[in-house]
Design goal:
This protein has a single domain, classed as NAD(P)-binding Rossmann-like Domain (Rossmann fold, 3-Layer(aba) Sandwich), CATH 3.40.50. The protein has 10 helices and 7 strands. Helix 1 crosses helix 2, helix 2 packs parallel to helix 3 and helix 2 crosses helix 10. Keywords: Oxidoreductase.
Length: 268
């Protein structure tokens, strides 16, 4: 593996410094923002001046840690509990954003679910769980958020490189992410006349807590394997996904819609 990295706080601060306060006063909802890629997105957007609402399902410790971080940064931020597999909780989450913010200048659908199961053994309830969390939840979040989205608003749906290449044992996951791209392209055309942009951000292999939680040998093997596959020779970091989201929700990308932006280090 090549290259060196600094700590995540320094990375987010560096991205914010590079982009300035691009989102000062913007109101943003990021689903699934207390860990991993979602936390990187929240941290970068908050550092860029946005007021961010995010949600978590069950990891209260991670939520509390994020709340402390956001409080240090300043701004009007909210970390709310919501199970996005439950349609009524999605409605409640978006309504809460309306109450607290009055509008949403950007929506980032990051919350997701994944499992690794041979296709012949894939239970129907697990198919529904993964499809509902990765696809149906994004659809419902956007649908409920429509009254809160002004002209110039941006929707970013977090997809996956796997939707294009396919991965064994993840047929349900890749199907959901591929469908998310189709949904986004249709919404880009339907909502474009309202001045609302819709794009997909497709990360590659990102170094998150999930990799860190693996046994040391397994984590090292995974890093080595995927580093060899990328043009940059390393895994990505959550804040690097956050930087791409910052571009897509800011005015820097005001003529970009219906696109899939790959943040994958040139993986092959």
């Amino acid at each position: 593996m090549t290259g060196t990295r600094t700590g995540p706080g320094a990375e987010s601060a560096g991205l914010a410094a590079a982009g300035g306060k691009l989102l000062t006063g913007a109101k943003v909802l990021v689903t699934g923002g207390t860990r991993g890629v979602g936390r990187g997105i929240v941290s970068v957007l908050a550092a860029a001046g946005a007021d961010v609402a995010t949600c978590y399902r069950q990891d209260a410790e991670a939520a509390a840690a994020l709340e402390r971080e956001l409080k240090r940064n300043g701004g009007d931020h909210h970390v709310l509990r919501a199970d996005l597999a439950q349609p009524e909780e999605i409605a409640r989450l978006v309504a809460e954003c309306g109450t607290r913010f009055g509008r949403l200048d950007a929506v980032v659908n990051n919350a997701g679910a994944i499992s690794h199961i041979p296709y012949g053994e894939l239970p129907l309830d697990e198919w529904h769980r993964v499809i509902d969390t990765n696809l149906t939840a994004a659809h419902l979040v956007v649908q409920h958020a429509l009254p809160l989205l002004p002209e110039g608003a941006s929707v970013v749906n977090v997809g996956s490189k796997s939707a294009e290449v396919g991965i064994p044992l993840r047929a349900h996951y890749t199907a959901a992410k591929a469908a998310l791209a189709g949904l986004s392209r249709s919404l880009a055309k339907e909502l474009g006349p309202r001045g609302i942009r819709v794009n997909v951000l497709a990360p590659g292999v990102i170094e998150t807590e999930a990799i860190g939680a693996l046994p040391a040998e397994q984590a090292a093997a995974m890093r080595e394997r995927y580093s060899r596959k990328t043009a940059l020779g390393r895994l990505g970091a959550p804040d690097e996904v956050g930087g791409a989201v910052l571009f897509l929700v800011s005015g820097l990308s005001r003529y970009v819609t219906g696109e899939v932006l790959h943040v994958d280090g040139g993986i092959s």
